[in-house]
Write a structure and sequence with these properties.
The protein has helices at residues 13-23, 63-71, 93-102, 125-147, 160-177, 194-198, 222-226, 236-241; strands at 3-7, 30-33, 43-45, 49-55, 72-74, 79-86, 110-115, 184-185, 204-207, 210-213, 232-233. It is α/β, with parallel strands linked by helices and 260 residues long. It folds into 2 domains: 3-160, 3-Layer(aba) Sandwich (Rossmann fold), CATH 3.40.50.360; 177-254, Alpha-Beta Plaits, CATH 3.30.70.20. The strands form 4 sheets. The chain has a 5-stranded parallel β-sheet with strand order 2-1-4-6-7, with helices on one face. A two-stranded parallel ribbon has the order 3-5. It binds flavin mononucleotide. The site of flavin mononucleotide has 28 residues, from helix 1, strand 6 and helix 5.
Length: 260
């Protein structure tokens, strides 16, 4: 049985969930960061079980996940599941993902949402602790469903209100809140290159020991959250949120090539 879990993760929530899930799957999967295919024109999928784990961005599927799915060429008709991690407002993320998969002649067999600490906005401390204490039990329940190949469709239909909210959230979020133009660094930057290495789109270059952001940002916030000197700044709201990463995910897990 060939199983693959493709993940995208800025601060480790989705990666931690992909790993935790794999511990209790009967057929162990290869867990693969989907950003490694960013320069490929197409990706052939020859598997019996295919999973996607990713964060909700702006009440939608991150563009990086959408563009990865566009590249997929399915050689089989696998059982496909998706786990979206979010801070409580998933918006149209799962139905949009399903549309992308449908365009590939497939459909999502099961979909799951897990609330995790938010990495873009402040999550109240008690909620953050509660989510970190309870997500493993939720993942165990999900793994049982995947092991049984249960069919779990998206609940309800996206109504017009959710669609409008998602569009506004995306428009404002991308252009005002998380515009790469707002990203900067302070004098605390030592040019260690961690931001360059955690960037899934290779959008940051260290030149003369200082980071330079190009235009191809995935909004994952990895550069902000993983900076060991807290030198990356990203606008008022993000600075107020402060740094976060999943407690069981380390820089090494983010597959960095640290150049000290
Ligand atoms: C750019 C951006 C936009 C986000 N938008 C939403 C959102 O619309 N709804 C929500 O519930 N969480 C949102 N979040 C929070 C993340 O979905 C959540 O913290 C997720 O678990 C992070 O996963 P990761 O650590 O794997 O990147 C957003 C996070 C980022 C960075």
């Amino acid at each position: 049985m060939r199983s693959r879990i493709f993940y995208f993760s800025g601060t480790g929530n989705s990666l931690a969930i992909a790993r935790e899930l794999n511990n209790s799957l009967n057929d162990k999967a290869c867990i693969i960061p989907l950003s490694i295919y960013r320069n490929e024109e197409s990706v052939q999928i020859n598997a019996d079980v295919v999973g996607f784990a990713f964060p909700v961005h702006f009440m939608n599927v991150p563009d990086l996940v959408k563009s990865f799915i566009k590249k997929l060429i399915f050689k089989t008709n696998p059982y496909i599941f998706a786990i979206a991690t979010c801070n409580g407002t998933p918006g149209i993320s799962l139905s949009e993902l399903n549309k992308c998969i449908n365009k590939k002649g497939q459909s999502l067999s099961s979909v799951f949402l897990i609330n995790m600490p938010g990495n873009a906005l402040v999550t109240p401390h008690n909620l953050e602790v509660e989510r970190l204490n309870t997500y493993k039990a939720k993942v165990t329940e999900i793994s049982a469903k995947i092991n049984n190949r249960s069919i779990i469709k998206i609940e309800g239909k996206d109504n017009l209100k959710t669609r409008i909210e998602s569009s506004i959230c995306e428009l404002l979020g991308k252009h005002l809140y998380l515009n790469p133009k707002n990203v900067s660094y302070t004098y605390q930057c030592v040019g260690c290159g961690i931001c360059e290495n955690v960037c899934p789109l290779n959008n940051i270059k260290i030149i003369n020991k200082r980071p330079h952001w190009k235009k191809d940002c995935s909004s994952c916030l990895a550069c902000f959250h993983w900076c060991p000197k807290k030198a990356v700044r990203g606008g008022k709201m993000l600075n107020k949120r402060g740094q976060y990463h999943h407690p069981e995910i380390s820089i090494e897990d983010m597959d960095l090539k640290i150049k000290f």
